[in-house]
Design goal:
The chain has 420 residues and is an alpha/beta fold. It has 2 domains: 251 residues, no CATH class; 123 residues, no CATH class. 33% of the residues lie in helices and 16% in strands. A hairpin with a 2-residue loop joins strand 11 and strand 12. Helix 3 packs parallel to helix 4. The two termini are 34 Å apart.
Length: 420
């Protein structure tokens, strides 16, 4: 006797890039609920990342962060929701015709397909495909990129005839000054493989029962169905599927049990993907001067280790993640990382707020000896800021209307090429 999967089979869904600051987790959970995903921890949020989000120390549930969509990625990860990166940074110079796709990009795509095969829903942020003006990082120079610059093709929202008149693209490259330099060949690789993964997942939902699904997977494994161009994608999906049936689970798929980390960032900082040489040197010196050692996780992530061997905080170009109780060092590193900016304290438990305030005052008193302007620096707790201005509420309503519930498009051909 065959049995149906319960709850419903995994979906590949498109979510608008707009996620109200401070409400990312709530918006994601609401989106999942609207799309009949009973638990948001069964949905993988995909974001454009870098090499630091990959490798042996990273898994489906490991903490990942950064600027742009790296911010909701960190917050969702803190809430126990799985996140995976498709790297747009640290993948070399923009590819030229005939260049090999970087191994890092291939592995990232394989991980995503493996998660889908295991049974996770895939949630991809998208934006409307249109001309975008971006400021070159570190300058006032602006450049308008053509609509087809970042992604040569676009995808449709399969919801209404009106929506099908518009094209959308993954929300990678060019957002908020992040990685403005196009990489169209890598973009096309991601676009093609994401489209094929969506078609594969959509087709599986059309199969009536477990017997039909098993027969389809058998044919896919034997290469009797599907385009051989995507063999690696199919193999990774099938690897995840096989792993889901093992009694002893691969730790890569298992949630990471840890407390929620407080976070500090600059209120007016432009997103940075890399430390400048002098900036990195100053951070390393500050950690050492405070009697701590530096653990370099990757070129753009450093962890301060206290004398007791415990982690105090991790510094990246866009944030300071607090993992210990030495708030003074974390705040001091934030002042160096975000010079002259108001500091935003995020995810700070109510009981710890007085300690943060005390530490901030003590640090500023010491810091202004060498930096007279430091006394002008302020701080805010993110959860105490009004979560939605009238303008953002209007935009949220507009987005809600524009991006309706988007189920799997069952009109797609089984495993054919085309719009997705």
């Amino acid at each position: 006797m065959t049995t149906e999967h319960k709850p419903s089979l995994p979906q590949f869904l498109l979510i608008p890039e707009y996620m109200t600051k401070g409400e990312e987790t709530e918006i994601f959970e609401k989106f999942c609920k609207k799309n009949n995903i009973d638990d948001p921890k069964k949905a993988v949020f995909v974001f454009p990342g870098n090499s630091g989000h990959h490798g042996k120390e990273n898994s489906l549930f490991s903490q990942k962060s950064g600027g742009g969509l790296g911010i909701p990625a960190r917050k969702l990860g803190d809430a126990g929701i799985p996140v995976l990166s498709l790297p747009t940074v640290d993948v070399g110079e923009p590819l030229k015709t005939g260049d090999e796709i970087p191994a890092l990009a291939k592995q990232a795509m394989a991980d995503l397909c493996k998660a889908a095969g295991y049974g996770f829903n895939i949630v991809l942020p998208v934006r409307e495909k249109k001309k975008r003006t971006r400021t070159k990082e570190g300058t006032d120079e602006s450049k308008e990129f053509a609509a087809d610059t970042f992604f040569p093709e676009g995808c449709h929202f399969p919801s209404s005839d009106e929506d099908k008149k518009l094209l959308y693209e993954p929300s990678f490259w060019g957002a908020d000054g992040i990685n403005s330099q196009p990489n169209p060949i890598l973009a096309q690789y991601y676009f093609d493989h994401l489209g094929q993964l969506k078609r594969l997942m959509s087709h599986v939902t059309t199969l009536k029962n477990e017997k039909e699904r098993e027969e389809f997977f058998k044919q896919l494994r034997e290469g009797k169905v599907g385009n051989n161009k995507y063999k690696d994608l199919h193999d990774s999906y099938l690897e995840g599927l096989a792993e889901s049936k093992e009694s002893r689970k691969d730790p890569w798929f298992e949630p990471v049990v840890k407390g929620k980390s407080a976070n500090i960032y600059g209120n007016k900082s432009k997103t940075k993907h890399n430390f400048g040489p002098a900036e990195k040197k100053d951070i390393i010196k500050c950690i050492a001067d405070n009697g701590c050692t530096v653990k370099e996780n990757n070129p753009n992530s450093m962890t301060a280790i206290g004398k007791d061997g415990k982690e105090i905080c991790t510094v990246t170009p866009n944030e300071v993640v607090v993992s210990g109780t030495d708030y003074k060092l974390a705040i001091l590193l934030a002042l160096i990382n975000f010079p002259g900016q108001e500091l935003v304290f995020s995810d700070v438990p109510a009981a710890e707020k007085p300690k943060f305030e005390k530490a901030f005052k003590e640090v500023i008193a010491e810091f202004e000896e060498d930096h007279p302007d430091a006394k002008e620096i302020k701080y805010i707790f993110e959860d105490e800021v009004s979560k939605k201005s009238d303008k953002s509420s209007e935009k949220a309503a507009e987005i809600e209307k524009k991006y309706p519930v988007v189920p799997n498009d069952k009109e797609d051909g089984p495993l054919t090429n085309g719009h997705w």
